[in-house]
Amino acid sequence: xxxxxxxxxxxxxxxxxxxxxxxxxxxxxxxxxxxxxxxxxxxxxxxxxxxxxxxxxxxxxxxxxxxxxxxxxxxxxxxxxxxxxxxxxxxxxxxxxxxxxxxxxxxxxxxxxxxxxxxxxxxxxxxxxxxxxxxxxxxxxxxxxxxxxxxxxxxxxxxxxxxxxxxxxxxxxxxxxxxxxxxxxxxxxxxxxxxxxxxxxxxxxxxxxxxxxxxxxxxxxxxxxxxxxxxxxxxxxxxxxxxxxxxxxxxxxxxxxxxxxxxxxxxxxxxxxxxxxxxxxxxxxxxxxxxxxxxxxxxxxxxxxxxxxxxxxxxxxxxxxxxxxxxxxxxxxxxxxxxxxxxxxxxxxxxxxxxxxxxxxxxxxxxxxxxxxxxxxxxxxxxxxxxxxxxxxxxxxxxxxxxxxxxxxxxxxxxxx
Length: 417
Fold this sequence. Notes:
Elements: E1 14-19, H1 23-34, E2 39-43, H2 47-50, E3 59-63, H3 64-72, H4 76-79, E4 84-86, E5 88-93, E6 100-102, E7 112-116, H5 117-129, E8 134-138, E9 142-148, E10 151-156, E11 161-169, H6 176-180, E12 185-201, E13 208-214, E14 217-224, E15 237-246, H7 247-255, H8 258-269, E16 276-278, E17 283-292, E18 296-297, E19 300-302, E20 308-309, H9 317-337, H10 345-373, H11 378-392, H12 395-406
Parallel strand pairs: 1-2, 1-11, 2-8, 5-13, 11-19
Antiparallel strand pairs: 3-7, 4-7, 5-6, 9-10, 10-11, 12-15, 12-16, 12-17, 13-14, 14-15, 17-20, 18-19
Helix pairs in contact: 1-5, 1-9, 9-10
Organism: Novosphingobium sediminicola
EC number: 1.14.13.-
Family: Belongs to the UbiH/COQ6 family.
């Protein structure tokens, strides 16, 4: 039997072969397409399944810089009415005195916007369908990846071969592309699990994102737009919940009856939004830290969770991936205008150098916060609240943290400005 692919099964070559068509992979394909850069995008799942009601109940905080990226690639009009502005962030240690409030000045805009992942996916997928620079291959499994001196290719299980110039791993934390290249990980397990769902409540959230720290783990309430149709009990205000519990307790928490689960949430909310009810199914995600020892190889670049995965404590994971997208597209577009190939080693080195410091700094800060607030005991709590009170009284420090939350610090790619 001839092992060489039939010439009819080799598709036209593209600049990029993007493995993984999720939030980061598809944003990359669209951002590249706007610069005239072509791509094959391979996604294992069926887009209809990924965007079905109730499949992914997660919501993401989109920073100001990430919002600029979406607007700059033509998604602003579609996404603008779907996101809930985050006008301030309240950080508290178990509701005790000494909290911090991050609230920008009136002329500085919001700290970001909360979106359901489903809404972002729908907007990305709809745009991809109409983009001639994107060849989108769904329900497709990659069985072979090849990289050589003159190009790359991905072979699908149905025999089709997708040739290109640069291979991009965007498959998420368990990226087979990263593993196949032998790229190592600096990684550890937090031994915590995030329980994610959505709540309807009596009182409005006033566009405030709450991060409430308990010794067992953070408890975050993130503002979402009001429901268009009230619940059976007449509630329209809603928030996303990310409740971090020790992994040994996660199965038990997930198995609680709705009534008992709501009672546990009410205990931690202390009546701040009045009566509450569950309006989405509960999902559980183990929390780990992982950072690739490098994010490029021969004709290879990693983006998003394939390159770095972090604790969701400040909602920066997706935003970090979108900064990868902005930097990579800028480096590729500038280099290709100079006549260099996308897979050129010096092009990829520039991308890696640009992202290295931001990735390391952001992930180290978030890991430090997780560890600081995870120290149990009254003394630790008192020290934390003393520190938080000091930050509350220092406008310059609060501005620094707000710029970090907005994604506006460091050397920003043009697409994120």
